[in-house]
Amino acid sequence: MLNFPASITESDLRLAIVECGRIAYERHLMTSNDGNISARMENGHVLITPSGISKGRLNTDDMLIVDLDGNIISSRPDREPSSETPMHLEVYRQREDVRAVVHAHPIFATTLTVAGLEFPADVLPEVLLTLGNVPITAYATPSSHEDAEVIRPFIKDHNAILLRQHGSLTCGKNLDEALIHLERIEHVAEIYWRAKMLGEVKRVPPEAQARLIELREKSFKR
Ligand SMILES: [Zn+2]
Predict the structure, then answer these.
(1) Any catalytic annotation for residue 217?
(2) What is the distance between the alpha carbons of residues 188 and 10, in angstroms, rounded to a whole number?
(3) Residue 48 backbone dihedrals phi, psi, to 5 degrees
(4) Ligand 1 centroid vs 58 CA: distance in angstroms?
(5) What CA–CA distance (Å, rounded) separates 80 from 68?
(6) How far is the CA of 143 from the centre of ligand 1 (A)?
(7) Distance of CA 19 to the CA centre of its chain
(8) Which of 84, 90, 177, 186 is catalytic?
(9) What's residue 222's pLDDT?
(10) What's the 9 CA to ligand 1 centre distance in angstroms?
(11) How far is 203 from 102, CA to CA, in rounded Å?
C-alpha cells in the first residue's frame, strides 16, 4: 500500500498515510504527536497530516489538502494543517520526482545532531549505496518557516536530511521509499552509537567506498 504509483486515488493515499504513521510511531520514529507525513496527489495538491495529532492513531479523514503555495484546499473545522507544512512544500516545489515526505523524530539519528556529530555515512555499505552523506542543517525553530529555509540548500541533492536538535526529513517517489530512508538513517545511527560505546568505529575501506558511490550515482541518474 505504501509503494504506490503516481495515479493513486485520494482514498488510497489517505490509507497509505495512516499506515505510514502507524509504522513510524510503533518503531519509535515519531513519539507523542511529533512528526508529520505528506503525499503528492495526482492533481498536484498535497495531502498532509494535521497538527497536534499522534501519527500512530490517525484516521483517514484527519488529513488536509493544501496547494504548493500552502493554501488550504480541503479541511475540517477541527483540524489545522501540520505546522511543518512549509518544509514539506519546499521539498515538493524543488523535487518534481518526489511524491512523499516524512518528517520524524528518530531517537539515535537526532541524538547525533544533539551531540554535534556528523552523520556516519561511511560505516555501512548500504548507506553509501543508497543515501550517501546525510547533511545536518543549521538549527531552526520547529514549526516556523525556518525549517523550510534550512533544508533549502540540501533537498535538491538529498533524499534524507537531519534537522539539528530536532529530527529528520526523508522523501521518495512514494511513502515506502521515504520510510525506508528514515529506517536506514536510524539503523546506522544506532549501530554507530553502539560501536562508539564498544570502542573503535571502522569505516568502509576507501576503494570499496568509491565503488559504492559510483553505483549509487549511476542509479540516481536513471
Ligand atoms: Zn518536528
Answers:
(1) no
(2) 34
(3) -140, 150
(4) 17
(5) 16
(6) 7
(7) 15
(8) 84
(9) 47
(10) 27
(11) 28
> Could you tell me the distance, in angstroms and rounded to a whole number, from the CA of residue 82 to the centre of ligand 1?
10
Which residue segments constitute the domains of the chain, with CATH numbers given? Answer: 10-221 (3.40.225.10)
Which pLDDT belongs to residue 6?
86
Question: In 10 A of CB 40, how many CB atoms?
Answer: 24
Lookup: cell for 45? 495538491
Which ranges in the chain belong to alpha helices (H)? 10-26, 85-94, 107-114, 125-130, 146-151, 175-198, 206-221
The pLDDT averaged over each successive group of 10 residues in the chain (222 residues) is 90 97 96 95 96 95 96 89 94 97 98 97 95 96 90 96 97 97 98 96 95 88 53
- pLDDT for position 219: 81
| Bridging pattern class, strands 64-66 and 160-163 | unpaired
C-alpha distance from residue 162 to each of 70, 138, 141, 213, 221 (Å) = 23, 9, 14, 20, 23
User: What is the per-residue pLDDT for 80?
Assistant: 87
Cell numbers given for 143? 514549526
Tell me the CA–centroid distance for residue 59 and ligand 1, in Å.
20
**Distant-in-sequence, close-in-space partners of 181: CB < 8 Å, separation ≥ 6:** 130, 131, 159, 160, 170, 171, 172
> What is the 4 CA–ligand 1 centroid distance (Å)?
25
With H, G, I as helix, E, B as strand and everything else as coil, classify residue 156.
coil
